[in-house]
Amino acid sequence: MGETWRRVRKRPIYERVSFLDSAGPGIPSGTEKLDKMDSPRMIKSHLQAQVLPKSFWEKNCKIIYVARNAKDVAVSYYHYQRMAYAHPEPGTWDEYINTFMEGNVAFGSWAKHVKGWWEMRKKHKFLYLFYEDMLEDPKREIRKVMTFMNQELPEEIVEKIQKNTTFQVMKDNPMVNFSTFPFIDHSISLFMRKGILGDWKNQFTVAQNEIFDKYYQREMSDTDLTFRM
After folding, report:
1. Which CATH number belongs to the domain containing residue 169 in this structure?
2. pLDDT tens digits along 144-172
3. Is 115 in the same domain as 180?
4. Which of 86, 101, 190, 222 is the most buried (most CB within 10 A)?
């Protein structure tokens, strides 16, 4: 455990956890980086369940999926696209919210994404978590991960994990907050911006919220998956 903490403090997270989906001119792709990493490996992906490489399911990889409510995702994604060089300019917020509802953003429709993974639970065993639950009771969600990973840890380690994974601690940690990542502009927006539940209320107009509610009801009418806004 001591060695793990030392690595966490010395290497940025984008080096410790490779991004499967990453690719771009002049830089190694995510898969190329993963080929050079020793097992066991931690892999990050934003892919929809339907297009995740079949080997992940065939090899029974331990998969943890984290979902967040649509309104906060839309706001967070808007500010991320404003500062990430690899993404197209999002335009105004009024323009972007329509782009988001149409699903014309990287990794596709939010509704299809969360529902696709939710349905995949019927075929494969993996852990489906909610961002809102993580904010509400971090230790409870940490223990869910421990159970899923077949790990038993003493309470002092759980306390340490909880303390070091709070949003504010990670926001202040240069090994986690992407301040050393060369492809985003922190002068426009921070990578770790607010991390709260309900920030959409500071961005949506009344009219936008009414339109978005109709979109949400339409897209989520065929599932028992629910979110807290």
Report:
1. 3.40.50.300
2. 999 999 999 999 999 999 999 998 998 89
3. yes
4. 101
Q: How many domains does the chain have?
A: 2
Residues written for the chain: 229
Task: Confirm whether 224 is domain-assigned.
Answer: no
The reply to whether 46 belongs to the active site is: yes
pTM for this model (two decimals)? 0.89
Same domain, 213 and 182: yes
Q: Which of 46, 87, 113, 186 is catalytic?
A: 46
In a domain, 19, yes or no: yes
**What number is the average pLDDT over the span 191-215?**
95
